[in-house]
Design goal:
The longest helix has 9 residues. Strand 5, helix 1 and strand 6 form a beta-alpha-beta unit. The radius of gyration is 14 Å and the shape is globular. It has 145 residues and is mostly beta strands. It is built from two helices and eleven strands; from the N terminus they run βββββαβββαβββ. The strands form two sheets. The protein has a seven-stranded mixed beta barrel with strand order 1-6-5-9-8-7-11. It has a three-stranded antiparallel sheet with strand order 4-3-10, with no helix packed on it.
Length: 145
């Protein structure tokens, strides 16, 4: 098994009942993102990874949104949307397995009515945690071959 560096972590977030939290370090275990309101809800959808490409696509269409608005836990500078379920990535001391592409919630129409259609295949990809760990902004992302 080899590791191929593909990018870096740009941002880390979790959700609470009061809103989104932007942090520098994120702890995860096999049930998901610790402190996240969706922790231990659906293991296959426990971590949402979004590429900055999604935000660039919105910006190219004159929709300005801040990082974190798409509900991601991990914002990266690599576009993972082509990765097949079962593909594994290592970030920090964490191992994740891609589980399914994320479809865009219709609630994003409240941000801009064009957003659901524009990002329907480009919002993010869900992953499940294979081995617990912590990741930090700036950590490298590696694909496992």
């Amino acid at each position: 098994m080899s590791l191929v560096k593909v990018g870096k972590v740009l941002g880390l977030y979790y959700s609470t009942n009061e809103g989104r939290v932007n942090i520098d370090e994120l702890a995860l275990d096999e049930k998901g993102v610790l402190e996240d309101k969706y922790y231990n809800k659906d293991i296959d959808r426990s971590v949402l990874i979004t590429s900055k490409k999604s935000y660039e696509l919105a910006s190219e269409n004159d929709i300005e949104i801040s990082y974190g608005v798409l509900g991601e836990n991990i914002l990266i500078d690599y576009n993972p949307y082509h990765l097949k379920p079962g593909t594994r990535v290592a970030i920090g001391d964490l191992l994740l397995e891609m589980s399914q592409n994320c479809t865009l919630c219709k609630s994003f129409a409240k941000v801009d009515e064009r957003l659901p259609e524009l990002l329907k295949n480009d919002r993010g990809i869900f992953a499940k945690v294979i081995s617990s760990g912590t990741i930090c902004k700036g950590d490298n992302i590696y694909l496992l071959n």
